[in-house]
Amino acid sequence: MDKQTNTGAVRGRAGVGTVVVRGHARRRLAVAVTVSAIVAATLSASPVFAASATTTGSIDAVSAGLGTVTVRGWAVDRAKSTASTSVRVTVGGSVAGTVPAATARADVNRRLGVRGNHGYSGSVVATKYGKQSVCVTALSLTRGKDVALGCRTVTVGDPSPVGSFDGVAASAGTVTVRGWALDPDTSSASVDVAVTVGGTRIGTVHTDVARGDVNRARGVTGTHGFATALATAKTGAQSVCVVAVNVGSGSDRQLGCRTATIPAALPATAPAPQPTPQPTTQPTTQPTTSPVPSRPTTPDSTAGSDQQDGGAMPAAASGWTRIFGEDFTTPAASGAFAKDYGDRFVAYDGFNDTSGVGMYRQSAMSVADGTLDMHMHTDASGQPTGAAFIPLVDGRWGGQTSGRYDIRLRADAVQGYGLAGLLWSDTNTWEDGEVDFPEGALDGNVTLSNHCPGNPAANCLHRDLGTTFTAWHTYTIEWTPTKLNFLVDGVSVSSTTQNLPKKPLHLVLQAATMSPQKPPKDAAGDVQVAWVSISRAG
Description:
Distance between the termini: 117 Å
Largest sheet: 17 strands, mixed
Helix content: under 10%
Strand content: 35-45%
Structural class: mainly beta
Radius of gyration: 37 Å
Mean pLDDT: 82
Number of strands: 33
Number of helices: 5
Low-confidence stretches: 1-53, 268-307
């Protein structure tokens, strides 16, 4: 039977708390203990200090830049006064990041009588621009509450590119875009501008045209204008849009769209037929007509991309002198390329490709009907096989620090294999630079790259052209001391004046596996090369 107790109170241990037992309480119930006594007795060796512990601090300064906010001040959690805490920063109501309060602030230590490092000074990235409220909150290191230190209003600059799309002109197979663009993060440097026609990206232009009006209006230096023609297969009324490509913080910015009417290309004129003679009773002189020549296929022409073969090698482009040219008029059976063309090319043979799973074999190369065939396949032993060559200028490769390199080719869309036309270091030193064009998976898109000299793991320029390898095209790299220009069928698709290679490079064409994973065994097809040309300026 439960025993009832009389009404009364019993004091607990001094300094711990008060236990109160009320009358009519049952013995099986726990006695009531005040919450403050439990917290003080079980969670802290210094209950009076813990109960009054709080995080505090101050905002000394807030400033803003392009897409960034910098805060400075101090913060300390007095419950753990020797440890460093952090502050949370919000910009326009959105959390932008945290900044550690871990720098020495002797003035704070003297004022609060604490030890440790409690100063903060750091920047966070802001995604809201214009006039914004920046608030700082000191974070508790214990179970106490975080403490808002206050807010300041600043103006955050927009780091995204600015510019103008001034105009567009169109002709058969090309559009020419004009305007200017610059990135506030790198206001003295040129930037890239992506161009789309009818919603399809056709290439990138570089701001390498001087625009004194822009420099004066914006208070900047450098070249920020663009006026470049790009190839397109679109015809009729099309929306042409340009987007300035962002550098650093910020995002790409569309500069505008304009409508252009792109005329269809005129078909090449076929030879005129011979007139059929009419029977007469008197002898007559049979009239004849001379065939009208079709438009020639040259590196500076957009014609020929729909040809069923690669076409004959044209004369050197204007302003350039050819120092090597091969249009593969001598047939060579499979395995005989090194014998028949060994004075003009080095053919890779008997060593692994870049991925490590494929093997270069000169037996994969043959020449017929004016075309070099590089056959991608898996051989009877299960070895994926590719091919590669280096043209020899005057019997040797290398020695050039500038030049024009033209290759006319097409490829089957073979799964697991890729193609790389590249300018590679004469001393096999990657840091000298690497320029790739055309490059990409054979069943993917054509890309171009300029690896940064001195830091080649990074691309100083990389573009996906959005086109495939399946049609015949002439791919050109123009390398001068002041510019790299990339062309397709004579029309520039991208260029740069920044981070140009200065050391000697030579031309290589590699067709090989794309990754450490072997291609399907039945994956097979060809890279076909119609001609190769190397020229020097002049």
